[in-house]
Amino acid sequence: MSEEQPALPNRQSPFSEAFKEFICTDWAPYSDVLPEQLPASVAAVARREALSALFPGDRLVVPAGGLKVRSNDTDYRYRPHSAFAHLTGLGTDREPDAVLVLEPVDTVDGPSSGHSATLYFKPRAPRTDPEFYSNARYGEMWVGQRESLEEMAALTGLDCAPIDQLSDDLAKDADSTRIRVVRDTDTALTVELDQQRDQAGQTEVEAADTELTVALSELRLTKDDFEVEQMRLACDRTAEGFAAVVADLPEAVRRGRGERWVEGIFGLYARHAGNAVGYDTIAASGDHANTLHWIRNDGDLHDGDLLLIDAGVELDTLYTADITRTLPVSGRFSPTQRKVYEAVLEAQEAAMAVCRPGVKFAQVHEAAITVIAQRLHEWGILPVPPEVSLDKETGGHHRRWMVHGTSHHLGIDVHDCAQARQEHYRQGELKEGMIITVEPGIYFKGTDLLVPEEFRGIGVRIEDDILITADGHENLSSMLPRTADDVEAWMAPLLEQGR
Ligand code: GLY
Ligand code: MN
Ligand code: MN
To answer: Which InterPro entries does this chain map to (predicted)?
Structure first.
């Protein structure tokens, strides 16, 4: 259920009886043309089947989650839970308070491993219902015309039922059916199901729920063809946003608070070409690049500094890119900036080179940090030999200058599959269809006394989105330049546009 908004008498005025009658009249009928099925929902069928096979005989409950209050009677823009989006194909702002239920089906031979899927949601009320004009969260006058049961069924290819029916349906056979729910996405529903399972004598329900959550995360470790296409598109759109940012860098320098200008230009592209940004854009100039999650973005841009931009367009299907480029604001790297940049690039090349099926996820990171430790040592910065620093038990000195990992899974969530078990993620192997980032960096904070002065205040990260293929990998973000020379050559005509 959506988070409750506080009662705000100051914001409400009663409707007269005359208004209530008048408002319900003279509206054109609803169209009887049903919407086309969402392509994402076609791909979701096989995902539901894969989930079904993991939990034979269990009732599986996957809520979309409700609206969250930002302040008073204003909500955050809605985004469904990623597992719900993955299993239904619904994206953008669909569908607050909806719940997908996979119900085990019996066959003539006894219990089967199959499930039937039903999407419970709040269908639109007719225009004769006060919801039409008085419900700011669901009413047509406030949020637009929402789907009927038939329209939602056409969009998703799912059987649909009104949300009011959910509690009764969940109570059926509650004594004999094991129920698993994605906990806390819909708090009220979690509480209701905990009580129901308690009464039915089901034990260890939290552990059973965790198994579902883990399975949903692991289902997304390898992407299907539809998902790969979406990720390609997300990278294309992100690259267009990066080019627009570069074309407007001269304006960002002129205006002051240029980091915000950069964030805004990218945000415009993300909102226009997709659903939104996939995470808050990091627009970090100069020493700000050394704050890993710099999203305040209130700094100026100066010719002579680097700008680290880490940003991704999230499509309407919610698949997001996650790309970083570190760009010279003037269009040309200084010799010291180039030295750091090329070390990071070398680390990234080494990490990408190992990306193929069968290689351990951790080896990608090891390849990157081996290069970084070597370069730091050559520059006289690493206080121990690289092999000592690279020893996991006793070393780790290089981490002072790259404290984050090199890779994470990417998909509907920017940090996708985060609930997957260690043996399938950090300690797992790469498989065909996985998409991971490769994003080494070197960060020399302005206050780092161990670093020669010429390096201080330089932070560089290069991040690309890598699809693991049958015999290697494909860089989905390769349309953006990576070598220092290519970056300069790409920027020159774009900067010229903006001058
Ligand atoms: N943008 C967040 C990350 O790179 O992981
Ligand atoms: Mn990343
Ligand atoms: Mn990133």
So the answer is: Aminopep_P_N, Creatin/AminoP/Spt16_N, Creatinase/aminopeptidase-like, Pept_M24, Peptidase_M24B_aminopep-P_CS, X-Pro_dipept-like
